[in-house]
Amino acid sequence: MQKASHGFIEDLFALVSAGLFVTFGVYLFQSQDLMVGGAAGLALLGTYAFSADFGALFFIINLPFYALAWTQISKRFTINTFVSVTTVSVLSDLIPRFVDISHADPIFSAVFGGLLIGVGMLIMFRHSSSLGGLGILAFYLQSRYSVRAGTFQLSVDTVILLSALAFIDWPLVMISVLAAVCLNMVISLNHRPERYIAKPQSSHVEPDMTDGQVQPQN
Predict the structure, then answer these.
(1) Which one-letter DSSP state was computed for residue 216?
(2) Which of 198, 161, 154 is nearest to 176 (CA)?
(3) 150 near 187, Cβ under 8 Å?
(4) In whole angstroms, what is the distance from residue 102 CA to residue 99 CA?
(5) pTM of this prediction?
(6) Could you give the 3-state DSSP secondary structure of residue 186?
(7) Dihedral sign, CA of 157, 118, 59, 33?
(8) Residue (of 52, 77, 93, 193) closest to 135 by Cα position
(9) What pLDDT, in 10s, does the model give residues 50-73?
(10) H or E segment to which residue 85 belongs
(11) Degrees (nearest 5) of the Cα angle 130, 143, 135?
């Protein structure tokens, strides 16, 4: 059995759709001044602590993760991640032109926004992509060492969000922790490729952690 692979059009449609999910989730967070996790959260902490430029910090933080993706995962994964990050960046400027949130409950925004981002990231993972930053490391650890991506990201995001207590009001941090839990529960409960592996009786197969397909063992 040959390994099945998503085609270019399938990847493009999926990644743009995932980018829309993620972008709208982030938009809900921003509407309530909620904190985020991952590389963006690290960059935000840097701006609070050192009054540094967010864009420059975010770029620098992502560099080693892109190197990891290129050398240890695959070129396809790196390129698809670049597409995902670019899509989110572009849509972040477009969404406010079409949607105006005049009122939203912070807890609802945290829960629904976290679920939206989690679903978007899940789609990206299924199409050999991520949001960059710590998402790349999470993808690598799961595919190489079977460390659940959601569990890893939840742990790191919790540390980042708790560190934000030094800079923003604690009620917003606590609500942001709830958002991180919702986001990472989506990934932790659903991004488990071993559940979706068909095992033909005629040959032994071992899982390919990249996109949940199977690969014969010679």
Answers:
(1) E
(2) 161
(3) yes
(4) 10
(5) 0.74
(6) helix
(7) negative
(8) 77
(9) 877 676 777 788 788 888 888 888
(10) helix 75-98
(11) 25
